[in-house]
């Protein structure tokens, strides 16, 4: 799904991010997790374009770049500018294996803890950038997992990210995300995060102990309605 040209333009251009944004920002999609941590979904840089990305990374306070496709640029360029590069490749159009999910969540937990301490002196939220080839499949899936781990309703998360990044996710990835089960670690942390305002507006938090059985019918209805809207009823 995300193996189309990284230079393809969409009929619904994304708004530029912040003041003095460069044309490159049209390929960026910022998704907030909370007041001090956010994600930047993007297409893949190349060695010839990496300097443009680095300028945006500095402006957006990007601390890490997670790439889930094969390398298209030298990581040393980013690391020399204080940006950590993480390689978690998995197959185009697929969902991430457990090993990738575990490593992804470890990065988030580490940066969130650091960002929460620095937010008073650093007004710009910490940003974790993630990309596949076009930023439409594998990268958005990881961001959706992160938001779901925070207790957000997965159907609402999918819809929110698709509004930010038109064309994100394929059928298989949506099925995976709708049925994604939060880790025990994330469930134990929800009580510490519940006082934070949701950056996704009216997204509903799931139960701290997981999705209750009484809500399964409602969840299934939402799931089917979402598929009907996105795929014309074919799932």
UniProtKB/TrEMBL annotation:
Gene Ontology CC, one term: cytoplasm
Lipoprotein recorded as keyword: yes
EC number(s) stated in the UniProt entry for this protein: 3.1.3.48
Record-level Gene Ontology MF annotations: protein tyrosine phosphatase activity
Low complexity bias (residue ranges): 206-218
Catalytic EC class: hydrolase
Catalysed reactions listed for this entry: O-phospho-L-tyrosyl-[protein] + H2O = L-tyrosyl-[protein] + phosphate
Stretches assigned to the Tyrosine specific protein phosphatases domain: 102-176
UniProt keyword list: Disulfide bond, Hydrolase, Lipoprotein, Methylation, Prenylation, Protein phosphatase
Keyword match Lyase: no
Transmembrane segments: none
Pfam assignment, any one: Y_phosphatase
Region of interest (Disordered), residue spans: 193-220
Domain Tyrosine-protein phosphatase: 27-189
Family to which this protein belongs: Belongs to the protein-tyrosine phosphatase family.
Protein name: protein-tyrosine-phosphatase
């Amino acid at each position: 799904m995300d193996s189309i040209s990284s230079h393809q333009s969409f009929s619904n251009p994304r708004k530029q991010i912040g003041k003095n944004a460069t044309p490159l920002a049209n390929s960026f999609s910022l998704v907030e997790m909370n007041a001090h941590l956010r994600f930047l979904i993007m297409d893949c840089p190349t060695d010839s374009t990496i300097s443009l990305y680095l300028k945006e990374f500095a402006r957006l306070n990007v601390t890490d770049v997670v790439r889930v496709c094969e390398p298209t640029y030298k990581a040393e360029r980013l690391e020399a500018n204080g940006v950590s590069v993480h390689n978690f490749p998995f197959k185009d159009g697929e969902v991430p294996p457990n090993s990738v999910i575990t490593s992804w969540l470890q990065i988030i937990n580490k940066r969130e803890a650091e960002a929460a301490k620095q937010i008073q002196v650093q007004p710009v939220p910490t940003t974790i950038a993630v990309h596949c080839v076009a930023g439409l499949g594998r990268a958005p899936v990881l961001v959706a997992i992160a938001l779901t781990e925070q207790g957000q309703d997965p159907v609402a998360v999918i819809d929110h990210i698709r509004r930010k990044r038109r064309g994100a996710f394929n059928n298989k990835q949506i099925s995976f995300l709708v049925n994604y089960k939060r880790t025990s670690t994330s469930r134990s942390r929800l009580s510490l995060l519940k006082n934070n305002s949701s950056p996704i507006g009216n997204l509903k938090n799931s139960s701290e102990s997981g999705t209750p059985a009484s809500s399964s019918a409602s969840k299934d209805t939402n799931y089917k309605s979402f598929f009907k809207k996105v795929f014309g009823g074919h799932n």
